Amino acid sequence: MRGFPLVVCLVGCGGTETPPADAPFDAPTAPFEFTVQTTGSPRFRLANPFLFTAPIGAQFENENELLKLMPNHRFDDIAMQFVSATPHPPPYDEEEVDALPSSGLLTGNVFSLADWTPPKAIGLAVMVLPLDDAPDDVTADGTVPVIPNSEYPLGSSATLEREVDGQRTVVDDEFTSELPAASIISADHVGYSHQNFFYLENSSFLQDPDRKGTYYWTVNLQTPGSGGKIELSAGPMYVVP
Length: 241
Prior knowledge:
With 241 residues, this protein is mainly beta. It has one helix and 18 strands. It has one helix at 95-103, and strands at residues 10-11, 33-39, 44-54, 73-76, 81-84, 106-107, 110-112, 121-130, 136-139, 142-145, 147-148, 154-164, 167-172, 177-179, 191-192, 195-201, 213-222, 229-240.
């Protein structure tokens, strides 16, 4: 992967194909929706994906802006991800959504070109959580339901596609990363209580920076432990003049 794998922040770093700059643009008409497809038996689930924009910097150097969506967290330089700084109990499903009103960050699915012009970026946020029947075990948040270390390293990949006349073209597919087990943070951590994933894009990584249009995200998470896989499809994301 080229670029900055902030995970639990994953970021894109360059397009693969570029539709014509004068391709027709569909005005925003549809709400943001998502589907989740599960293959096998992964021991984690996804919750509450949403889009937002933040002044994270041209090279995503201002990652602390994302802490506005994650009270009680910090960035761990060894694990290269956000982890709990202050133990806090579940449920975590609404953690980021509940933080939005006080974050000052714009959310929705309609953004301006300025919203993904550096220092700003548009992001897809996703919560990764234990299964509802997960056993309790030792985590950074105490003894709570856990995504076990056996599910790691967790492979993550994503694509961002632009839709023109009903046809989608990949504009960025370089969101690949591999996430370590919780034991890299502390040897006694049996797993994670939750993880905050962010997939970020700005125009400096696109071949054509003046890219208004309609976009869709696809995210894949795959574990070597259970062999399970989850695919998230989300959109539309509109970028308007």
